[in-house]
Amino acid sequence: MDIKTKVGARLRDVRLAKKLTQEKVSFDSDIDKSYISEVENGRRNISIVNLEKLTLTLGISLKDFFNTTDFS
Amino acid sequence: MDIKTKVGARLRDVRLAKKLTQEKVSFDSDIDKSYISEVENGRRNISIVNLEKLTLTLGISLKDFFNTTDFS
Predict the structure, then answer these.
(1) Does A19 contact B at CB distance below 8 Å?
(2) CATH assignment of B3-65, among 3.90.1530.10, 3.40.50.2300, 1.10.260.40, 3.40.640.10
(3) Inter-chain CB proximity A67 and B71 less than 8 Å
(4) Which residues of B touch A52 (CB under 8 A)?
(5) Which of A36, B54, B69, B72 has the fewest CB atoms within 10 Å around its CB?
(6) How far apart are CA A44 and CA B62, in angstroms?
(7) Is B54 on the interface with A (CB under 8 A)?
(8) Helix or strand or coil: residue B59?
(9) Chain A residue with the nearest C-alpha to that of B3
(10) Least CB-CB distance to A3: which of B7, B52, B72?
(11) Distance from CA of A67 to the nearest CA of B (A)
């Protein structure tokens, strides 16, 4: 699994675990919903600034975000 | 400290701890040395694909890379 797919899947898992919609995350992060969808589907090479915006919106630190076996 | 600066400082710390030069990391990662220098100086919004290339070259997982208080 490539890194874009791993990051996208992790973002989706965290979002769903918090019962947030893409619309809500888009509104709160000021990042376009279609971009969020593409990132979650592994089709975007997200930058660290946008990744931080999304993780902040999702209420998870980057330390906890990457703290899974997928990233070890 | 913004995320670009944090990531850049962390990359430099890991590189220096492993006694690697920017030239060596550039050669092994196939990423331009001046780009690496700019990332380390917090002037680049690095993508997840390039960040993974650099952490792989530095021999550190993304899980361990982000496992510092700077990212919590």
Answers:
(1) no
(2) 1.10.260.40
(3) no
(4) 3
(5) B69
(6) 18
(7) no
(8) coil
(9) A49
(10) B52
(11) 5
ipTM of predicted complex: 0.95
Q: What is the DSSP string of B1-61?
A: --HHHHHHHHHHHHHHHTT--HHHHHHHHT--HHHHHHHHTT----BHHHHHHHHHHHT--
Q: Do B62 and A66 touch (CB under 8 A)?
A: yes
The span from the CA of B69 to the CA of A68, in Å, is 17
- Predicted confidence band of residue B72 (pLDDT cuts 50, 70, 90): very high
Q: How far is A49 from chain B (nearest CA, A)?
A: 6
Find where tokens 């030239």 sit. Answer: B23
CB contact under 8 A, A49 and B7: no
Superfamily of domain A3-67: lambda repressor-like DNA-binding domains (1.10.260.40)
pLDDT tens track for A23-41: 999 999 999 999 999 999 9
- Both tokens assigned to A27: 């509104």
